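Re: that chain you flagged

S.,

Sorry for the slow reply, it's been a week of failed gels. I finally had a moment to sit down with the sequence you sent. For the record, here it is as I used it:
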Amino acid sequence: MPGPKHILVSRFSSMGDVAMTVPVLKALLDQNPGIEITYVSRPQFAGFFNNIPRLTYFRANLDKEFKGFGGIIKLYNQLKKQQNFAGFADLHGSLRTKVLRRLFRLSGVPYSYINKGREEKKLLTRFPNKILKPLKRTTERYADVFRELGFSLTLSYELVKEPKDLTEDITKITGNKTNTWIGISPFAKHTGKIFPLEKMEDVISELTKQAVTVFLFGGSDSELAICNEWALRYSNVVSVVRKLNIEQELALISQLDVMLSMDSAGMHMASLVGTPVVSIWGATHHFAGFLGYGQSEDDIVADNIECRPCSVYGDKPCFRGDYACLYRIETKTVIEHLSKYTTKP
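Prediction finished late last night. Pasting the structure tokens below so you have them in one place:
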């Protein structure tokens, strides 16, 4: 009797995009018990995939061991030695994965790759005369890759709460939960996604007047400094920047009543553990397909200025020069959206 089909899956970046693949893979494995998966990505994302049955995570350090074209050849050779893959699902569509899938094709492995919908996204973000309509969700684009390989796959888009126990290492930082816990992930890779920090500080100041504890998430040196400053300035505000690894962050996020996030990784991490997210959107728009899995459009905070969205990823400079799409959002609007989760009946 033949064994299960083994599928190679790749997505190298970014953190939020990698996190978005997780619910798709879980659904694929649940609905197709005859397959196994090897997922190849960067070492720092491994924590997203722990304890997923029939999934093996291959840590590929693309900055050292597998750097450059020669590194991709080396990666291909190592992967090929591990398994006789029945298919290759390229969820990234980057130059690296394009080389990788062509190498596997030469060895007889069929592949499918993501259609990013670039042309329709151009119509969504152009100004003037943009076509403002919902596009296919990114998770559906991921699912299509597996469907093209012949697998049935249906996504439920249900937000399922999966609380995880907090270990002693975590509670030393967080304390025990005795009130409402709110997470805030105030940063993003690009300026067009970031709620002005002075306005975010106003949100934090207002929240500390309530019976809540606020946890701040981030990563870079500048983010660490800002979060530490806010934690010192306001009571019941705790920075967990660089104090927890991904698994520990997911455990903490699972215990939150709500996460406040940009259109960034914080939103997608919360989705993995079923925590609702109030998300702030500036230059980007959820119509491009990046709303967190299972998250509600009712929890989106955004301004309807006519030039928005101007970018899919928030990386284009504001042609107005003032990022009005973000500055026109009022602090009280954010607080009102959070109140659904912070006000107890």
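What I noticed first: The first helix runs from residue 15 to 31.

Talk soon,
D.
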